[in-house]
Design brief:
The complex is a heterodimer of chains A (243) and B (443). Chain A has helices spanning 2-32, 117-121, 125-128, 239-242, and strands at 39-49, 56-65, 69-76, 84-88, 91-96, 101-104, 110-112, 115-116, 129-139, 142-151, 160-166, 172-178, 184-196, 199-209, 216-226. With 243 residues, chain A is an alpha+beta fold. Chain A is globular and about 65 Å long. The termini of chain A are far apart. By secondary structure, chain B is mainly β. Chain B has a domain at 30-108. Chain B has helices at 2-22, 29-32, 86-89, 95-101, 155-158; strands spanning 34-47, 53-70, 73-84, 103-116, 119-126, 148-151, 162-172, 175-182, 210-212, 226-235, 238-248, 253-259, 267-273, 276-288, 291-301, 304-306, 316-318, 321-332, 336-347, 363-372, 380-389, 395-404, 409-419, 434-442. Chain B is globular, with a radius of gyration of 27 Å. The chains are: A alpha+beta (243), B mainly beta (443).
């Protein structure tokens, strides 16, 4: 009897680990659909909408190298030109021309509209979160695997993410972002899949506030160039030179 | 088959050629490499204390350009022009203040940056900003400052740019060694007698007539050149730096000489001096999400103060000084950004007869709290800054609201309130409380 119980426990643990591995693999594949290569440059336009207000448009040029290294230049509107963000792993700096030097800031701080710094400076869900498969659902006519992502540390933008990834092609489809209290903060929908540099990439993310549904931000990714970027671009002492 | 392929190739070539001919001409390369931006600000300030009056009606224009020769070489030029119509609107201020502050045209940046491998070279007129904390000068020691409006303007406006050579070498990923050298030894700009933010005069020991000699050392001097090094490293999320800087004190200390007169009482001659300072500093910063901690320490060796001690031979005493601060940033309710900063100035010796301005005791403690939030998608941003010196409870309260009217236009309204005893840092401006309105257009 004991032998049987042991065998069943072992089988269950192996099956659990296999499922965990599959979940991690799905998140890794979905991350690839959110980044065109190991080293690249893209421009992001964020259009923020709110009821009874004209949309606000912010532009960024984002330089990414490897996992966790990104440099973000603010290119619009004019009041923001000259600012930049540097993310190295879980460390984040902002360069403000008025301060004249890079200043440490938290990842969770809001950037514009519904967008947090981490939304454009980090694309590495596989590195930041532990994933668990929780089921299958169809969203917008797309058959998806549904995953629960739990933050590995407190140093990330969201404590948890519920993540819908398409079964076909393993591309991100939808995400719900949660605070540590379990409160839903916002919902993201990934759209506009395009083939760029041999990758299928989602080139639009729409973030909607969980409480004020009229408040949303649309992130459009364009002018994507895959190229090897120098390491010094990701040094805080170089931020002023690059602004 | 061959003819089909040939036709297809020909069609492609023709199409390509046509595309080339008809492609709309973009801007030339030199224009793509040039970035121009600027802003115009209209600043109005009204003095609240009797006599209430316009204290500023200033138009300021900034023009900045950056020309990129390549990804690793660029040239920046920036200029600032000012005209303060307040001096025409009121006769409150004497002519020397009007001459000093009414109009100004200044080259703010002329900087050639070249990067080759792990070496970055920045040569020209520039601001070199050291330190981790915002809105404080503990280790931000390289540039002199313009105190004609106390410390109320942005720090990038407070710093006076200097001609300097700044070299940075990357020793390893995240580890940099920076060296700075400048023959540009200009000093802080202080407000003239009668200006709105004139510093309270140092209480002197004698009732004799006094003559203050002018304070105008040569701006450029190889023998008085200044320089220093900074080693900075990012290790496991800790930003740390160690720095040394050798400079002349940017603020004058007044050496006092008694000169006998054939008739009448002796005259006290006040001779401004800028003693050599050796500054050793350490900075640290760390983000422990969601809190960011910062700390800075600077030990200034050779610092001298004017004393009111009647037994002092020349009115000057040396007190090496330690300045340090600890600060924490935290966002409350995902909406209110808060910064709490505690700083101390510690004199290595008695502070008797030295307690004026920024020195209130042997240990002068200051606490600052800044709260900022945003409404309507951060288009309306209220901020309040409260700074109090704990020793004598003099304080500064500066609330402001910035409203982003459009992508390029900002309207800011605010107040600067000072309270405290006459010879304290903030109390000396007790009668300069003001409300202000600034409109800025950026392009």
């Amino acid at each position: 009897m004991f032998k049987w119980a042991l065998a069943v426990t072992l089988l269950l643990s192996v099956a659990g680990r296999a499922q965990g591995d599959e979940a991690a693999e799905i998140v890794r594949d979905a991350d690839r659909a959110r980044r065109p290569g190991e080293s690249f440059v893209w421009k992001i336009t964020i259009t923020s909408f709110e009821a009874n207000k004209s949309p606000a448009v912010d532009g960024f040029e984002v330089f990414v190298k490897g996992v966790g290294r990104s440099f973000v230049k603010f290119v619009a509107p004019p009041r923001n030109v000259g600012r930049s963000l540097l993310a190295l792993g879980r460390d984040l700096w902002i360069y403000l021309p008025d301060a004249g030097k890079p200043v440490r800031i938290p990842f969770s701080q809001r950037l514009v509209g519904q967008v947090a710094n981490g939304d454009i400076a980090r694309t590495d869900y596989a590195g930041d979160y532990d994933a668990t498969l929780v089921g299958d659902e169809t969203f917008g006519g797309v058959a998806c695997r549904v995953l629960d992502l739990k933050a590995r540390t407190k140093d990330v933008t969201y404590a948890a993410i519920k993540y819908w990834v398409s079964k076909d092609g393993r591309r991100p489809v939808k995400a719900e972002y949660y605070a540590g209290t379990g409160t839903l903060l916002k919902t993201g929908v990934f759209e506009n899949v395009k083939e760029i540099a041999g990758h299928h990439l989602v080139t639009r993310l729409t973030l909607v506030d969980a409480i004020r549904k009229d408040k949303k931000s649309v992130l459009d990714y364009r002018e994507i160039t895959v190229r090897d970027l120098p390491d010094k671009y990701f040094d805080k002492n170089y931020m002023k030179t690059l602004d | 088959m061959r003819s089909t392929v040939a036709a297809a190739v020909a069609l492609c070539l023709v199409t390509a050629a046509y595309a080339e001919e008809t492609a709309p001409e973009g801007p030339p390369d030199w224009l793509k490499a040039l970035r121009l931006k600027g802003r115009i600000a209209e600043e109005f300030a009204y003095r609240l204390h009797d006599p209430g009056d316009v204290s500023k009606l200033r138009t300021t224009g900034w023009l900045e350009s950056k020309y990129s020769f390549s990804e690793s070489a660029n040239l920046r030029l920036a200029a600032r022009a000012r005209y303060d119509a307040g001096f025409d609107a009121t006769d409150r201020y004497p002519a020397n203040v009007e001459r000093d502050q009414k109009t100004e045209l200044e080259l703010r940046e002329a900087l050639l940056s070249i990067s080759r491998g792990d070496l970055d070279v920045r040569l020209g007129r520039q601001q070199i900003v050291w330190g981790e904390a915002v809105s404080t000068f503990v280790t931000d020691v390289v540039n002199p400052r313009d105190f004609r409006e106390f410390i109320l303007p942005d720090f990038s406006e407070l710093r006076i740019p200097i001609w300097a050579l700044d070299l940075t070498y990357r020793l390893a990923p995240g580890v940099n060694l920076e060296g700075v050298w400048t023959p540009d030894a200009r000093i802080n700009k202080l407000p003239k007698h009668g200006a709105e933010f004139e510093f309270a005069p140092i209480p002197f020991r004698f009732r004799n007539p006094m003559v203050r000699l002018p304070d105008n050392p040569d701006e450029f001097s190889l023998s008085r050149s200044e320089g220093g090094v900074r080693l900075s490293a990012l290790v496991r999320g800790w930003d740390a730096s160690l720095l040394y800087y050798d400079e002349a004190d940017k603020n004058p200390v007044l050496r006092q000489r008694r000169v006998s007169q054939a008739f009448g009482p002796d005259v006290i001659v006040l001779e401004p001096e800028h003693p050599r300072l050796h500054i050793v500093g350490v900075t640290l910063a760390k983000s422990v999400e969601p809190v960011v901690f910062r700390s800075e320490v600077a030990v200034t060796v050779g610092k001298q103060y004017s004393t009111t001690d009647p037994l002092s031979r020349d009115g000057i005493v040396r007190r090496d000084t330690i300045d340090y601060l600890v600060s924490a940033d935290y966002t409350f309710f995902s909406a209110v950004d808060a910064t709490l900063q505690v700083s101390q100035k510690v004199l290595t010796g008695s502070a008797a007869h030295l307690t004026y301005g920024a020195v209130e005791a042997r240990v002068t403690t200051s606490v600052a709290l800044r709260l900022t939030t945003g409404f309507f998608d951060n288009t309306l941003n209220p901020t309040v800054l409260f700074v109090v010196n704990a020793n004598r409870a003099d304080f500064r309260l500066s609330p402001r609201i910035d409203y982003l009217v459009a992508g390029a236009v900002t309207i800011s309204v605010g107040a600067d309130i000072f309270e405290g005893a006459r010879h304290t840092l903030y109390g000396q401006f007790d009668r300069s409380d003001r409300v202000w309105l600034t409109t800025t257009w950026r392009f």
